[in-house]
Every structure is written in structure tokens, then in C-alpha cells.
Amino acid sequence: MKKWSFALLSLMLIAVLAACGNNKDADSGADNSAGAPRTVELKVGASPTPHAEILESIKPELEAQGIRLQVVTFNDYVQPNQQLADKKLDANFFQHQPYLDTENKERGFNLVSVTPVHVEPFGGYSKKIKSLDELADGAKVAIPNDPSNGGRALLLLAKEGVITLKDNTNITSTIQDITANPKNLDIIELDAAMMPRQLDEADLVFINANYALEANLNPANDALLIEDLQGNPYANILVSREDNKDADAIQKLAAALHSEEVKTFIKERYKGAVEPATE
Fold this sequence. Notes:
Lipoprotein_NlpA, elongated, 5-stranded mixed beta sheet, lipoprotein, 13 strands, alpha/beta, signal
């Protein structure tokens, strides 16, 4: 009995020593993948067009740097910031600074801009009229219902002399800031994502460029009135949280979005509907 016990103890000791040896090899990286760079997963929320398309174009470059980019698409402007704040995303790419400022203030987020990437000119479109001169008395005009983009629409109308605002430079102007409306326009506010669907209903519809592109509209060719690209304060930005904005993977993503390859991709693919931002 003692011999069997001794033999059993010997086998257990050998097994323990072998396990320790294996753990030592694993801890030291002594396997077939020794020296291989660790891959970092980076999850970024984006609007389908053009943001997700731009991100998809840089996947190979980031993969070569050890970053596996996962692009999560959203068709609204609410969830990307909420999920970033909840740490379900590492970054997002769909908005401009005035919109981010409003979101942080109204929803208590602590999200920060990492870098501007491109500019999407905002414009007014119509299937019913070919110029603003044809805008009839009482015409229906649809604008986005968020403060920053609704303000953009009103500023464009004011610039063309269609309405007058208290302050023609206030990018957060609202309907309540209209001081003169000679054509008695019926201005309705709806979610930005719904704007393309209003083209069959309203006389003039203001659409963010990403939604315009999805509806096969090119701002440079199809808009009746459009923002200037020069000095445009609405550059679309890469956004992260305060706690990860300086992370290596986020900074490499920002650098890739500023590459000459991306600038060429934007110019060739969108033909003036989207332009690279100037820093």
C-alpha cells in the first residue's frame, strides 16, 4: 500500500512540475507566436455615408499597425454619443463640434473632439421648385429639429433674404428667433434622418450631407442653396471620451484619417459633396 501511495505521489509531483513549466513558457511568450504584436480592438460608431465608408477604407492600414477596426453604423444622431458615453464604443465619427457641444451640455456627456476630418456642406433641396424665387407664400419648409442643424437651415434662409433673424451669426438660432417671415413660410422641425422623406411633402427640405448622399443627392449639384466650404465651422470630427482620447489606438486612427490616401479617397469618391477638413 505504501509503495502505491509513494508512486501516486511521485506522479502527482511530476504533473505539477510539468504544469509549472508550461505556465512559465506561456508567461514568457515561449510559443509559436512569440514576438507577434498584440492586436487591439477599436470599435467606432459612424453614419453609413460617408463616415463608415471612410473608416472602411483605412482598415488595412490600421490592421498593419496592430489595430482591428470594427465599424458600427447608426442611422440616427442619438445612439452614437450615448453608446460612446456608456463605453460600448471607443469613438464615434458622425457629428460636428456645435452638435457635440449641445449634446455634452444637454445630456451631461464628457465627450471630446480628437480631430476634424471632413466638411459636408449642408443644403436645401426641393422636388417642387427650381429656385428660391419660386417659393410661394405659405410654402412648407422642413428643417432638422436639433439646435445646431436647425440653426444652420435658418442661417441659410436668412443669408438668402427669405427670413430675418435676431442674429444672423448665431448658429443655434431657432424658429423663435425669426423676426421677419415675409412669405409666411410654414417651417416644420423633424428628426434629421427623416428629411429625405420630406422631399415629396415639403416645398423646401434642409438635409445633412450624409443623409443627402444616402438619398442619391449630391449637395454640390442638387442643392438649391448650400453652405460655403471656406470657413465652415461644421467640420465632422472624430470623437472619443476624455479618458481615452490620448490612447495609442485612438491617435493612430486620427493620423490615418488625415493621410493623403484618405484625402484622395474623399475627393474622388464624393466629388465635391464632401471635402477634407483643413486643420
